[in-house]
Design goal:
Elements (H helix, E strand, L loop, with lengths): L1 H10 L17 H43 L2 H38 L7 H5 L4 H27 L8 H4 L1 H11 L5
Protein name: DUF4355 domain-containing protein
Pfam family, one: DUF4355
Keywords: Coiled coil
Length: about 180
């Protein structure tokens, strides 16, 4: 192996050539640029295709709505518009109520010393009594867990009855006598 390296250096003028272990990797910047360019083109085409499908769907929906409005009388059109607006308002109101519920739950969790990450999950219950009950259960479990950890960390090992522990008092007195400095 070393002889081959020496021969390669002498043949190539002392310059070491990279070995061809790069399987499928671009060998130059231009190859890399072309690969990246192709990937970008493909992504753009897919994005354009999705956009075209969305716009076609929106046009088809608008067409259906226009056809249905064309078949309606003036009073029916008014009623349909009112229903459409009411539906949009109901959706907005539901979103606002959901945000307010989450804010209330977060305030309650903060007041009880709990993390607010539980608010979104608790909001799925949608019943104030169920939310309060679940919050209390979380608080109890949280406090119990914290107390158990504190107790485990604060627990001391029981003193042993080995010979070393029995002679601690005398060894301490001996130590004090030995180290007493009188001037």
């Amino acid at each position: 192996m070393a002889e081959e390296d020496i021969q390669n250096q002498s043949v190539n003028g002392g310059e070491e050539q990279p070995k061809e272990n790069t399987e499928g990797l671009p060998q130059s910047q231009s190859e890399l640029d072309s690969i990246i360019g192709k990937a970008i083109d493909k992504a753009l085409k897919n994005n354009d295709k999705k956009w075209a499908e969305k716009t076609e769907q929106a046009v088809a929906d608008a067409k259906k709505e226009a056809e249905s409005y064309a078949k309606m009388t003036q009073a029916q059109r008014k009623n349909a518009e009112i229903e459409k607006r009411e539906k949009a308002l109901d959706e907005r109101e539901a979103k606002l109520n959901h945000k307010a519920l989450i804010a209330d739950i977060q305030a309650d969790l903060t007041e009880k010393g709990l993390p607010t990450v539980f608010a979104e999950v608790l909001s799925l219950l949608k019943d104030n009594e169920a939310i309060a009950s679940a919050t209390q259960e979380i608080k109890d479990a949280w406090d119990k867990s914290v107390n158990d950890r504190l107790k485990a960390n604060a627990r001391q090992k029981t003193p042993g009855t080995s010979a070393e522990s029995i002679h601690v008092g005398s060894s301490l007195a001996d130590f004090a006598r030995k180290n007493r400095i009188i001037k």
